[in-house]
Design brief:
The chain has about 450 residues and is of the alpha+beta class. The protein is about 45% helix and about 25% strand. The strands form 2 sheets. Strands 1, 2, 3, 4, 5, 6, 7, 9, 10, 14 and 17 form an 11-stranded mixed β-sheet that branches. The longest helix is centred in the first third of the chain and has 29 residues. The protein is globular, with a radius of gyration of 24 Å.
């Protein structure tokens, strides 16, 4: 028997299908079959813009200037042609409808997966001795702005403020030794990860209070980042779920470990005070010069050489690049690392990456239980949940399935959206025929494959 369609999901699926059809019909009505040529012209402009951007980032002097001009002029010229021939408005309307279709489809599928996902174990008994570490500097002062200290103490928590003089891991260990039966953090993802490891080692529940700047971990747990105090509701009546933890060598991460160009740039002493200038000055050498990182990945019998950037995540990201919702992972309990690799050797490959997106050979995605990252050096700079460290090379990344008990409120304000826009499922959902049970079977049948972007 088919499971019921989640309330509201069918309406969003119908909106997605109608918007998708509209994004195709608008240019067809405006220009007929010539709309295909206009679309190809737009893709060509994006490819030329990518070439210009590559030149601007990977070179200096006159080539950088030429690349900057090309990156701006190519799209501008096509927009001017669209305007001159009356295609600008239809193109913008088509793009808006396509964007609406994509957003509606992903939210509809997200609601379907939320209905199909196991909710976890309800916990009615509050902890006897909850301990909370708070960083008053995180998130521009969210701890003070939301009066988190007062609210946590009113909920029966022992609160410790992080002043930078004491080791985070040591503070968490001391709390356990003194009888804490729940560990919590109000701070950024890097601090969350350090305390989460201690909680996992002692099999204690862990509470995330999203008081950092981005809080990607909280986002994928479905927590309200705009009101971090709501996370404290889980103390009295919460739900306990189990999620995975990732490791890079002996360093734990709740989100990801990044290698390559980005990790090299942020280790520069000047980066903190002059991010843009430092990045522009270092990129040419890191992309094409002698200092360019050339990473090697080994995972499940697969070896990939010559990588410039590599991201290893605690469970796979739904999309390789998602600027609107960074760090979106549909699940945190698959027991697999997500790996995204980038290898761009020149302007042609940069253009191909823009034109073909996830189908480009320059972008490699996979899932694995263990990934080994190496280079021609003895050490590797790594960005781990926003914290930048240097580790001995090669770096072995692994995942600990179900290692962390996380306590969350019964009602979570944001549910991670579906990883992929699966249009056949969207159509079935629009017709009221989608079955969460069937979709769970499909998810299990995927095995180790990463979700399609």
């Amino acid at each position: 028997m088919a499971a019921p369609v989640p309330r509201g999901a069918a309406g969003r699926a119908r909106l997605a299908v109608l918007a998708l059809l509209g994004s195709v019909l608008v240019p067809l009505v405006a220009a007929g079959l010539r709309s295909v040529l206009w679309a190809l012209l737009g893709i060509a402009a994006l490819a030329l813009g990518a070439v210009g951007l590559w030149w601007a980032l990977s070179h200096t002097g006159a080539v950088r200037v030429l690349g900057t001009v090309l990156a701006v002029a190519a799209p501008a010229a096509v927009l001017a042609l669209y305007g001159a021939f009356g295609m600008l408005v239809p193109a913008l309307v088509s793009l808006a409808l396509w964007s609406l279709a994509a957003v509606s489809a992903r939210t509809a599928l997200g609601a379907r997966h939320a209905a199909a996902r196991h909710p976890g174990r309800s916990v009615a008994v509050p902890p006897r001795a909850p301990w909370v570490l708070m960083n008053p500097r995180s998130g521009g002062g969210k701890v003070g702005r939301f009066r988190l200290v007062e609210k946590a103490e009113a909920a029966g928590c022992r609160v410790v403020l992080l002043d930078g003089s004491r080791d985070v891991t040591e503070l968490a260990r001391q709390a356990v030794a003194e009888g804490a039966d729940l560990l919590a953090v109000a701070g950024g993802d890097g601090t969350q990860a350090l305390v989460a490891e201690v909680a996992a080692r002692h099999d204690l529940p862990f509470l995330v209070i999203p008081a950092g700047t981005r809080n990607h971990f909280a986002l994928d747990l479905g927590l309200d980042r705009d009101d971090p105090a709501k996370a404290l509701d889980a103390l009295a009546h919460g739900t306990e779920i189990r999620v995975d933890l990732g490791y890079a060598a002996d360093r734990v991460f709740v989100n990801n470990a990044s290698f390559g160009v980005y990790a090299f740039v942020v280790t520069e002493p000047e980066y903190r005070d002059a991010k843009a200038a430092t990045t522009l000055s270092r990129l040419p050498a890191l992309l094409t010069g002698e200092d360019a990182p050339r990473l090697t990945l080994r995972a499940d019998g697969t070896r990939v050489d010559g990588l410039q950037a590599l991201l290893v995540s605690n469970n796979a990201y739904g999309r390789a690049v998602d600027a609107a919702h960074p760090g979106r992972r549909e699940r945190l309990d698959t027991g697999l690392l997500g790996v995204v690799c980038v290898r761009v050797a020149g302007a042609a490959q940069a253009a191909d990456l823009v034109a073909r997106g996830p189908r480009s050979p320059s972008l490699i995605r996979l899932t694995t239980g263990e990934a080994v990252v190496a280079s021609g050096t003895d050490t590797l700079p790594v960005g781990i949940d926003g914290e930048h460290v240097v580790l001995p090379s090669p770096v072995v990344c692994r995942i600990a399935p179900g290692a962390l008990r996380v306590r969350v409120p019964h009602r979570r304000s944001a549910v991670p959206r579906a990883a992929a826009t699966d249009w056949p499922s969207v159509v079935r959902l629009a017709l009221g025929r989608a079955s969460p049970a069937r979709e769970r079977g499909r998810d299990r049948g995927r095995g180790g494959k990463a979700p399609a972007p």
